[in-house]
Amino acid sequence: MWQASGVRFDQVWFRYARRAGWTLRAVDAVAEPGHTVMVLGHNGAGKSTLLQLAAGVLRPQRGVIHDRPAVIGWVPERFPADQPFTTRQYLHRMAEVRGLRDPAAADAWIERLLLTEFTGTRLADLSKGTAQKVGLAQALLIPPGLLVLDEPWEGLDSVARTLIPQIVDEVTTAGGTVLVSDHRGEITSLPGAAHWTVSESTVHASAAEGGPDQDGPDEAEVIVEVAVRRREADQAVVRLRAAGHRVLGVRDQDVHGGSGAP
Ligand SMILES: Nc1ncnc2c1ncn2[C@@H]1O[C@H](COP(=O)(O)OP(=O)(O)OP(=O)(O)O)[C@@H](O)[C@H]1O
Fold first, then answer.
1. What is the model's pLDDT at position 157?
2. Minimal CA–CA distance to 209: which of 191, 227, 226?
3. Going by fewer Cβ within 10 Å, which terminus of the chain is more open, N or C?
């Protein structure tokens, strides 16, 4: 089960050192449960700092961050790969640390994130993109109520890039909140996301533009049933969503009872 939660910045101030200038000042911003927020801003604006505050990795000097859920998944901009483990050892260890009774729960993410061929590779020998996927897998071992992704598309190949909107959608559909930073214009991959723009040490929030969350059900909509090959289902869902359509569900005829939207 994914968890329902949000996150609320209440007059949050942060600086990296006592005598340094404020990186963020008087930040007020709310991310509602079930919603995605794209965090935008130029290099050095403070996006990573804001995300680390949301994830609880950094603590504000002033102000409070409310409503953080118990389980937070954080994927840093650079996965710290200088650890003496292979991919499988690391993910199984992380599963144990998180209290998962069966560390093999990690294997489902290994498969989904196309990491199978790298299970025996040491983290230090992984490419940046593959290391990022290991970082993503560890953040998802327990379904997070808040998922924080810092530049998640960096270094990913085209197949892996399509997984990000799917995973974001799964977390928010279950009532969780996702914060995603982006400085490369991947913004269109997450239609319906609200925007927080970090500039001049503060955050300007704006509502989702034209996404299904904002528009709600449209009386003029019709339901079109489409059949696709099982192996192409994930791609089809991503393409339909990217084109602005609402995917209501995915049924697998061979699986008893079918399943919900991926
Ligand atoms: N650990 C740190 N110690 C001191 N200053 C830091 C630290 N991390 C970041 N900064 C500074 O804080 C400011 C905001 O950095 P941050 O990484 O949050 O920006 P960003 O918007 O994420 O940038 P980018 O898009 O380049 O990742 C920058 O001036 C940066 O140099």
1. 81
2. 191
3. N
